[in-house]
Amino acid sequence: RICLVVEMKLKIACGTNNFDLDLTADGSPSTFGEFKSRICDELNIDSKMIRVIHRGKTLSGDDSDALDKFAFKEGDKLLVMGKARAPLMSDATFHALCDFEKKTLVGWQKGFDDLEKDVNELEKRFLDPKQHSEMAKRIEKKLKSFNEAGSRHMEALDAMTMNTPGSNEEQVKRNREKRKELINGIETMLNQNDTALRKVEELQRIEAEGEKAK
Asked: Which residue intervals define the domain BAG in the entry (predicted)?
C-alpha cells in the first residue's frame, strides 16, 4: 500500500481513554472510513455516533477520502466523542473476519508494496532494453496475479454468513460493517493495482514502439 506520511503517530483521546495511532504501520488505515473504524474498534464506540475533532474542527468527508486530505502532523492530538457500543457477545463470525484481515489481507497488501517498488524502479529505465522487457513481463504477471487473489478474497468474504447462531441484531450489523470495511479495502487496493498495471503496459508499449523504430 502507499504510505501517506513518514513515521506519523497521532494521539487519540476519548475521555480518560487514550492511545496512539501509527499511520505508517502495516495494516494502518489509509482512508477516512478505515480511520474512523479503527478508532471505533479501539474505543468501543458506535460508528454511527462518532465525532473526531482535529485542531478545533470536526473532521468530515467521504469514507473513501484519503487521510492526507486532513493534513495531519506527527504528534497531533485528536479528540473523539461518541456513544459506546452496546455490549456484544463473543461472536465467531466477527472473529473470523478479524482473522481473515490479519492472516490474509495484511500480507496481501504488503505484496502490493513490493510490486509498487518494482514498478517505480521499472519507470527509471536503468536496465538495458532486453532486461527491461523481461522485468516488465514479470511485474505484469505478478500484478495480474494480485488482481486474481483480490477477487478470491472478495468471494471468500461474500461467502461468509454474517448471522452466527444465537447472535443478536446488533452483532449481525457489526459483522456486516466489518465485512464492508474489508471489502472497501480490497477494492481500494485493486484500483491501485490497476493503475500500476496500466503503467507497466504503457512502458511495454513505448518499448515495443522503440524497437520497431530501430
From this structure: 111-197
